[in-house]
Design brief:
186 residues, mainly beta, six-stranded mixed beta sheet, 18 strands, 0% helix
Length: 186
């Protein structure tokens, strides 16, 4: 490639969940022999890809801001690629405490397991021993949640998933359900 690098479109961007692996910024195409430098708000971020004649992506980035790309073919031949993309983060669901649990008598109705509070727009899934889903997810109401009476013996946890953003977070603590045997009649 000689002269000025071709202008291609910046691709990617978007939002990712806090603690996630980040988001991708790329180019719709690249030229052989050209170095492409990722910029955040006009400042180089240190990520560079070499042109291959095909579309390409920079490594995932966890930085937030507005990203552009500058093509460099020697010190005097630089061209800013077309467009920009934004990267932002989405917050994880707020952590609330798992409530309830305890022992119940054999033949009884069980004990209640709940959550100290909840957020509208977040779904809460109850798990037994970390792997078995109990019932369907319960939608947050902005108040405490009740997953109902539980009779299966074990440790209960809750995982929250934002309904539209998909961000997931574990709720705090556990509730343990145990079974007490009735006294034996003589």
């Amino acid at each position: 490639v000689t002269g000025t690098p071709s202008v291609y479109t910046v691709t990617g961007g978007g939002a990712y969940c806090v603690g996630g692996s980040g988001a991708t910024v790329g180019l719709s195409n690249t030229d052989y022999g050209v170095s492409y430098h990722l910029m955040n708000g006009g400042v180089p971020v240190g990520l560079v890809i070499s042109g291959s004649g095909f579309a390409a992506n920079f490594p995932l980035t966890t930085a937030t801001g507005t990203f552009t790309v500058v093509a460099n073919l020697g010190s005097s031949c630089q061209t800013t690629m077309s467009g920009s993309v934004a990267i932002s983060t989405n917050a994880l669901p707020t952590v609330y405490s798992v409530t309830g649990g305890g022992n119940y008598c054999s033949g009884g109705t069980g004990v209640t397991v709940g959550l100290s509070s909840s957020t509208i727009g977040v779904n809460y899934q109850l798990y037994l021993n970390g792997t078995t889903m109990i019932g369907s997810p319960v939608a947050g109401t902005g108040a405490a949640l009740n997953f109902g009476l539980q009779t299966a013996v074990g440790t209960y946890t809750v995982i929250a998933t934002h309904a539209t953003l998909g961000c997931v977070n574990n709720m705090s603590g556990t509730a343990t359900v145990g079974l007490s045997t009735l006294p034996q009649a003589f």
